[in-house]
């Protein structure tokens, strides 16, 4: 500032006079101030209009060139970086915080969406798995319901009843016994035995599900032969009981039993599945 | 006239060429520009008063710029750069206003 004081103290030192002159203007409004001001104006105009190449003009031009350059650079760099350059420190901190928050939020959202995507992928895998399981179950249930043919190891039980003494309840007992021993598919003389199969009629006139069957009664049973055969042959079991009735029961194991009697899939009229 | 041309050419060149300011100088440029503006207004007033001396103008211009930059530099080193540059701008602004008032009296007679 000291350095600056010098030119300033030199310059304003004398400008005190014109200032005084101007401030004195109200006292003597007309002549002296007018002369002073006109001369100042004239000096300005004289400096401006006839472009003279003088040392002073050149030096001032060089300095002003530097000023203009700095001005333009500063204006440009200020307008370049938009709002952030001129922002105060607190504002910058706040903006930084906001950006951080925003980043955090977006990061959270990304994680959430990632998790969702993983979940969806898993669930589509699960849906595929569930579809396979459903198909498998459909086949199993089809075997139980008698809507599909079945084959596998099992036994053949042939009951010959020459005297017509075997009643429906004996056949039903046989079926119960077979089921208890793990029979998975049963067919009697071409009639598939399912959950709602019924036996009716007296000896020699037996109906299965309303369809009349004739002796000998041939049971084709799929299951584990080692379980099925002893279940029938145990003392007091089906075979002995039948023999008491003058009927003969013959059990044959087989590695390949084909149960191909079918019954149509019936849609229940009233019962509906309660599981989704 | 040539001086005014110099200013205009400087602005145009600065806008067109877009010179890169070295990072060291960058913080001092705005203060230096304001100081230079102060010197220019002082010079203009001196010219209107008829007491313009080119040597004085050159010295005041350069010393203004250097001192202003020096103050900001010092303020930065002391950790009060922002406040000090605000103070410098205020002082220079006051001087620019008073010089502008004198110039106004000359030019507009009011």
UniProtKB/TrEMBL annotation, chain B:
Transmembrane segments: 29-48, 55-74, 80-103
Predominant place of localization: membrane
UniProt KW Ubl conjugation keyword: no
Membrane topology of the entry: Multi-pass membrane protein
Listed GO CC annotations: plasma membrane
Family annotation (InterPro entries): DUF1290
Domain of life from the UniProt record: Bacteria
Short name of one Pfam family: DUF1290
Keyword set, alphabetical order: Cell membrane, Membrane, Transmembrane, Transmembrane helix
Protein localization: Cell membrane
Protein family per UniProt: Belongs to the sbp family.
The protein's name: Small basic protein
């Amino acid at each position: 500032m000291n350095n600056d004081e010098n030119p300033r103290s030199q310059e304003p030192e004398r400008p005190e006079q014109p200032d005084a002159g101007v401030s004195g203007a109200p006292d003597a409004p007309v002549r002296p101030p007018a002369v002073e001001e006109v001369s100042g104006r004239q000096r300005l105009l004289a400096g401006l209009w006839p472009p003279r190449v003088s040392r002073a003009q050149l030096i001032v031009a060089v300095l002003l060139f530097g000023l203009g350059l700095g001005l333009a650079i500063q204006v440009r760099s200020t307008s370049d970086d938009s709002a952030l350059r001129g922002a105060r420190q607190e504002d910058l901190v706040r903006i930084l915080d906001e950006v951080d928050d925003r980043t955090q939020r977006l990061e959270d959202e990304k994680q959430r969406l990632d998790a969702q995507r993983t979940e969806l992928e898993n669930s589509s895998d699960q849906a595929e798995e569930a579809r396979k399981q459903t198909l498998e179950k459909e086949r199993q249930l089809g075997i139980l319901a008698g809507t599909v043919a079945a084959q596998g190891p099992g036994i053949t039980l042939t009951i010959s009843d020459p005297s017509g003494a075997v009643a429906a309840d004996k056949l039903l007992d046989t079926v119960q016994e077979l089921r208890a021993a793990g029979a998975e598919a049963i067919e009697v003389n071409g009639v598939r035995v399912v959950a709602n199969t019924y036996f009716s009629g007296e000896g020699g006139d037996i109906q299965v599900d309303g369809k009349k069957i004739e002796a000998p009664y041939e049971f084709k049973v799929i299951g584990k032969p080692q379980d099925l055969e002893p279940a029938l042959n145990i003392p007091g079991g089906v075979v002995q009981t039948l023999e008491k009735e003058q009927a003969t029961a013959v059990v044959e194991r087989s590695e390949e039993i084909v149960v191909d009697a079918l019954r149509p899939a019936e849609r229940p009229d009233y019962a509906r599945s309660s599981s989704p | 006239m040539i001086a005014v041309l110099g200013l205009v050419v400087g602005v145009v060149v600065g806008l067109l060429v877009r010179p890169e300011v070295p990072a060291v100088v960058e913080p001092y440029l705005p203060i230096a520009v304001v100081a230079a503006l102060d010197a220019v207004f002082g010079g203009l007033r001196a010219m209107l008063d008829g007491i313009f001396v080119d040597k004085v103008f050159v010295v005041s211009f350069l010393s203004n710029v250097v001192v202003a930059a020096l103050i900001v530099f010092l303020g930065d080193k002391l950790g009060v750069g922002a406040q000090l540059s605000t103070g410098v701008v205020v002082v220079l602004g006051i001087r620019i206003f008073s010089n502008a008032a004198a110039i106004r009296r000359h030019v507009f007679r009011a």
